[in-house]
Amino acid sequence: MASNGILQKSTVQIASLIRNGAISKDVVARECYKRIEEIKPLNAFITVVDDHTNKNHGSTDLPLHGVPFAVKDNFSTVGVRTTCASNMLKDYVPTFNATVVDRLLKAGAVMMGKTNMDEFAMGSGSVNSLFGPVRSPWLYDFNNTDNSDWFICGGSSGGSAVAVATGASYFITLAKFYGSACFWRVRLQSVGLGRLYLQPCLIELIYINSIIYAELCVNFIIQHPVWEALEFYYDPRPYRKILQNLAETLVFVCAFSKEYNVPGMSPEVIEAWNRTADIFENAGARVVQVSLPHTEYSIPCYQVLGAAEVASNMARFDGLEFGHRVEGDYTEKMYARSRSEGFNETVAGRILAGNYFLLKSNYEKYYEKAMKVRRLITDDFLNIFSTSVDILLTPAMVSPSPLYSEFNQRSNRHRTVEHDVCLQPVNLAGVPAISVPVNLSQNGLPISMQLISAHFNDSTLLSTAKFLEQSVSFPCFKFPDII
């Protein structure tokens, strides 16, 4: 089987081939290592795990026996450095595995390496890493050794998205940042690279029967079709079991919100939005317009809540117990110098802002008010889904991925506001959503739409995404034969 043929298989397909003896797990791993070497110019990996580390893959009966995967570098991996792409942790080697990593390894999966990201997952372009920016494979000239400009791949998990898009990994582990409302970031880079990404109902996660399969669905960018999620994501209860067949005619209401038509939205994105609505309408769905009046407040709401969480959680990185340490004449000076050198400007800025919001004199004015706004945003979604609406259709980004030179003209804070506006509100509300690439821009870059459904209605969401995926026949990225 040719290299590209092996690496274009889905997780389900490659697991089945290995289990049935149709292909050797060593051959699959070798092809992934080869691809990792080929995509070095994209800077997708921070650490590549030595092949000898992956000698024991467990019993061939395990569900993921021999299937390669990558780990975002903010997950702890025993014996393999976990840097969070930060100077603060550049030499940190954990003595334990994150739960998701541990269970994937016990299921027989093979870890290829740790992927690049924005420092401490704070960014929307994967350009704020200690190890340099991640480059998108779309329109990248692999034959040109002097690529001074390239298209960004979104953030903060750009390296993970590139690994999956190019076939260097069959799936990757991702996570929302510190349990906060930042889950959209792991969808942002999937949008920029033309990949599918499912965010299931955050409340529903605790009910999923099999933790291995749940984490596969929840924490990785789906490499191939929506069927990947349909096969893995299930619950034994009949009333919530995923339906794997969609009727010929759609019998549901598809809505679009005027608040998502934000200033600066690309005409190509608006055209794709209208065309996608037409696809549903022509298939028999009733398309209506709805209003989510508090959508415009989601970004400032997140900026307060996110910064507050950052300030609280990042206090542990003081240079004393672990992490980067700079000696000082006294303890406070050691703390200050260690943190000043350990964190980049973006991380330090959020720590400062979060501490300000959490001051006793500001708590009610900022943090408490932001929590109330979050409730209003959640109520907006609850209200529209309490009517006859089944699916909400919105753009996933305001424009296709920009060039690195263009992206860097404004600060990380401004870029976060611009690129998160469409994806972020659903995370404050905790409703399930999926990003589906629908077509290419005039420049040949992916444009994606976002489908949103009510709490615990993941089955309708996945079925609708499957229908849309089959209707648009999006041309997934094909790695060029350059070597």
TrEMBL record:
Coiled coil: none annotated. GO terms for molecular function: catalytic activity. Residues 29-169, 254-462 form the Amidase domain. Pfam families: Amidase. One of its GO terms (cellular component) is glutamyl-tRNA(Gln) amidotransferase complex. InterPro entries: Amidase, Amidase_dom, AS_sf. One of its GO terms (biological process) is glutaminyl-tRNAGln biosynthesis via transamidation. This is Amidase domain-containing protein. It comes from Ciona intestinalis (Transparent sea squirt). The lineage of its organism: Eukaryota, Metazoa, Chordata, Tunicata, Ascidiacea.
